[in-house]
């Protein structure tokens, strides 16, 4: 096993929930802020529905999360103790600095012959914690010289948080570029920000996404009682005439929609299905890039293998929240359908996983890492460390439901049989 990058404690104390809605201890979001932002967004949605009729769940989700003026992610820090939900990169050093993900990227890149230059690309980097930790690991192993960091982020506020976390002073491009801001870390690593992964330069890249795909818009479909050829109907969102101003309701489309015609598999057995075509488009784009430019990818998210039905939900203040109430005041999320993602790439790439976060972290040596850290801790740090460990690994917390999968170019098939992908098979 590779040497760990650091052996001291640096774990954030947390008493919070993950995005499955498991409550550990609620924290507060200022109500005044929620009210102001949510009213204007609900107003915009009502006006749109009045003008064009009920909208798709995908359209609703996209507006609620990323509307430039009032979208949930756009103007505040929503992740962590003072936000609405907690994610693994925010749980401290075990998953962060010298973390399993950072070690995974470094060691898989090394196994591929350490091709340079290397672009580290993170989609939806949140508070930037994972990116900071990954750069630190590459620096520790003396491999940062040929590395650049590329962040795909829509939120102006989170971009600011990320640049502060990375200690980057921002410059704007003088002329039209595909990135909209850039800078250099204190250790001279170039960092670029983009709206879309399609804008990141075509070069050998390591793509990462942690709780990104579950924030992308989904379409929802319901099978009618008698499954005829046009038996599927799209679930839409309408104004709820019986409720207050900021409440919406689900309605069923009267006729097939383009999405219900195109996105349902012919052999679909479930009676309720959620599909994320935006995620599928991203994966198909990455498939072309990994094949033509080389690279690897690691994604982590809540998800299932084409078995679940209705997973669309909201989170506010570390509690489950009705996604149709007070839009813009709560995070919206839906489990990733890994079987759909597999279908998008399997003829082009090698896909490993999904494996549970518990299995991945244990195979990557989290237990050894924990024991080393515990030896250098005071009592308080020990408690925080154990709290973070149990949140990430326990079956009733993030350990079982949170999953990872990885992608590699198909040309590496034999190579990866001889040198199996870390974290995905027992050694
Ligand atoms: C649930 S947060 C996860 C943050 C971080 N990866 C973590 O695990 O802590 C989702 C992230 O994706 C970003 N995001 C959401 N939709 C996006 C989109 N369509 N394009 C780019 N970023 C998006 C959000 O602003 C946020 O940074």
From TrEMBL:
Superkingdom to which the source organism belongs: Eukaryota
Signal peptide region: none
Localization terms from the record: Mitochondrion
EC class name: transferase
InterPro entries in the record: NDUFAF7, NDUFAF7_sf, SAM-dependent_MTases_sf
EC assignment: 2.1.1.320
GO annotation terms (biological process): methylation; mitochondrial respiratory chain complex I assembly
Keywords: Methyltransferase, Mitochondrion, Transferase, Transit peptide
Catalyzed reactions: L-arginyl-[protein] + 2 S-adenosyl-L-methionine = N(omega),N(omega)'-dimethyl-L-arginyl-[protein] + 2 S-adenosyl-L-homocysteine + 2 H(+)
Presence of keyword Methyltransferase: yes
Gene Ontology annotations for the cellular component aspect, listed alphabetically: mitochondrion
Pfam family, one: Methyltransf_28
Gene Ontology MF terms: protein-arginine omega-N symmetric methyltransferase activity
Known function: Arginine methyltransferase involved in the assembly or stability of mitochondrial NADH:ubiquinone oxidoreductase complex (complex I). Acts by mediating symmetric dimethylation of 'Arg-118' of NDUFS2 after it assembles into the complex I, stabilizing the early intermediate complex.
Family: Belongs to the NDUFAF7 family.
Name of the protein described by the UniProt record: Protein arginine methyltransferase NDUFAF7
